[in-house]
Structure formats: C-alpha cells, structure tokens
Amino acid sequence: MSEMNSRERRRRKKKQRKIAITVMGILIVLLAAAAFYVTLQAKKNQGGDESSVSREASSESLASSSSGSNQTSSQSPVSSAGSSGSSAASAGSATGSAASPAASSVSDSAVSGTSVQTETVSLTEDEKYTGDLILINADQAYDFERNASSIDLKNIRESQSFSYPVGKEEFQVAGRVLSSLDAMIAACDQAMGTSYTGISSAYRTKEYQQQVWDDAVKTYGESYAEKYVAVPGFSEHHTGLAVDLGIFYDDGSEGSFSESDNAVWMKDNSWHYGFIRRYAEDKQAITKISNEAWHFRYVGVPHAAYMYANNLCLEEYLDYLKNNTSQDAPLSVTCDTGTFSIFYTADKTIRKPEGVYELSGDNSSGYIVTIAV
Q: Interior CA angle at 140 toward 136 and 142, to 5°?
C-alpha cells in the first residue's frame, strides 16, 4: 500500500509540473504579444504625428500657391463632353505634338520656414503662333515663317491609309492629322453606306490662295469672294489643318457635299476625330465667313468635343478659355480619348504640369495648355 501511494504522488507531481510548464508557456506568449502591441501602438502614434505635420505643411503650400492667382473661374454649363459613337483615330492626340518648351527651371518658395522647390516651364514667343488651336481669320494672319519647321506636310494620296478620292494629286495636309482624317472619312462612308467622300481642297500656299481669290472675284464678283474666300495670308488652308470635303462619283463627276447626308454625319461626328465644322450658319457674325458645310478644321479631340457639346466656334472657345480658365482653375473635358485639364495663360513661365501635356498658341496673345489626366 505504501508503494502504491508513493507511485501516485510521483504521478501527481509529474502532472503538476506539466501543468506548470504549460501555464508558463502561455504566460510567456501573452507577455510577448503585449510587448509587440505596445511597440506597434508607439510606432503608429509616431507616424500619426509625422502625417499631421506633413498635412499641415501641404495645406500651407496649397494656400501659398493659390494666393498668387486672383483669377476666378466661371463654370461652363457643360464641363465634360460625353463619350459616344466611333472611337477617335488618334487616342493620344489632344492638340498636336507634345510641347517642347524652350527651358525649364526650379524656383524656391518659403513655406512654414522650409524651402519648397517648384519646377517651371518657359514658353517662347514663337510658340504663341504655332499649334493646333491657332486662330486664323480675317483679323489674324497665318505666320508662315514661325510654322515652317513644324507643319510637316504630307501628300494625301501617297500617305493615306486606304484609297479614297482626292481632288488633285498634289493635295497635302499636316502629317500629324492624316491618320485622323483617314479614320473620319472611313467612318463616314461606312456609316452612310457610301464610298465617295473625299478631299476637294487641302493645304494652300499664299500664292495658291491668291489664285483662288482672283478666280472667285472674276467668276462671282468681289462680294461673293468676301463671303466665301479668305484673303491670301488669312486662310485656314495655310495651316495644313483644314480640308474641304467633297463627293466624288465613280464616273468622275462630283456631287454637292453640302446637300448630302454625309455632310450631316460629318457635322455631328467629326469631333470624335478632332475636327470641327469651322464655319456654321449661326456663327457668321463671328467668323465673318458664310455657311460652309464642307470646311473642316483639326483642333484635337478634347477641344472639338467641348466645342461641339457647347455649340462654340473656335473664336468663342478661345475667348472662353482666356476669360474663364487658369492653371489653378482649368477646364475639365472627358471625351473619347480620356480626361483632360485645359487652361489658357498669357504668362511665359508656368509651373510644369504633372504628366503628359501639349501646348498650342492662340496666334495672338497667349497659350493653351492641354494636360492628359
């Protein structure tokens, strides 16, 4: 009996040691977890303090940059154009080629006792007179010299992506718009079930425009010429961005584009490809040119989209940008090719835009900056 009691005591002591070891292990794990939690909370608190300081500095920086501009933005009834219909031919194109500013620099501004660097871009005088948004009309002549190096003319027949009618073998357009022109004509013929939409006029030299003017005066009289033909040096055809569309039948004859269903389609859909119907009947008092259903001008997809949605001619659109936008308060446009921030500036030094941007002059007093968002 004594031996059995001794074995029972040893068994109990062994069981108690196991329990003690287990409890000790649990306590060690709990203590380690508590220590980890305390460390984690301390790090979070430290990070929160740093974030708070960072946010305060950012708020002061924004307030500092905003205070430099006194211009207020007047919101347009439509700040974004809807995306519908055919996709644009050149998805990356907004206003032609990407801007190549003359120089960029970094300036310092004091914010809460610290130095914040702002990279800037310098715009040149020549850039006021180049780009897809330059205004050419009876009051503003085309600058041949400043555009000579960037126009990059391409022969339409030799460069077109598919065969469509071109009135004369020598017709040319600016190379950067050719793919959009091809896509627009293809989409029109496909939508209308035709194959005869073509080009009846394109790029013109000053000498050629003089010939067109003289012929119009001789045939129809000066009054007619003043309504339908631009004075040499003041024609959009000099830019390589404008075309006159026509109807060309298989037998070699030509039809009236103005009276065709294709003209209606072009009026409502050319914006998808960056083109606008430049001379509308209800804008004659502004453009000083009579209704021309055949004349289309390339300005870039986001600009064409906004102009179409808001029934603006180029003169009105540029005036709107000049009077209602700034780098701190840009116009936002959503279209087939994405969302863009657009603003006008007369300053020759601006903050460098974030991301991809393009630059065009207005052919007068300033610049339009288009940023892909």
A: 60
Helix (H) or strand (E) holding 269: helix 261-269
Residue type, 99: A
- Banded model confidence at residue 117, pLDDT cuts 50, 70, 90: confident
The question of whether 292 is a catalytic residue gets the answer: yes
Give the pLDDT confidence of 193-217 residue by residue, as tens digits: 999 999 999 999 999 999 999 999 9
Give me 290's structure tokens. Answer: 């009579």
Helix (H) or strand (E) holding 102: none
Instruction: Report the CATH fold assignment for 103-372.
Output: Muramoyl-pentapeptide Carboxypeptidase; domain 2 (3.30.1380)
**Helix extents (H) in 150-199:** 156-159, 178-192
Q: What is the pLDDT of residues 73-84, one digit of tens each?
A: 333 334 454 333
Tell me which DSSP letter residue 236 carries.
G
Q: How confident is the model at residue 89 (pLDDT cuts 50, 70, 90)?
A: very low
**Other CB atoms within 10 Å distance of the CB of residue 339:** 14
Rounded distance, CA 366 to CA 349, Å? 11
pTM higher than the cut 0.85: no
Question: Which sequence spans correspond to the domains of the chain?
Answer: 1-68, 103-372
C-alpha 326/C-alpha 64 separation (Å) is: 16
Query: Please, what is the average pLDDT of the chain?
Result: 81
Catalytic entry in 222, 292, 315, 354: 292
Contact 346, 118 (CB under 8 A): no
Asked if 94 and 177 touch (Cβ cutoff 8 Å), the reply is: no
DSSP 153: E
- How many degrees, rounded to 5, is the angle at CA 364 between CA 362 and CA 368? 25
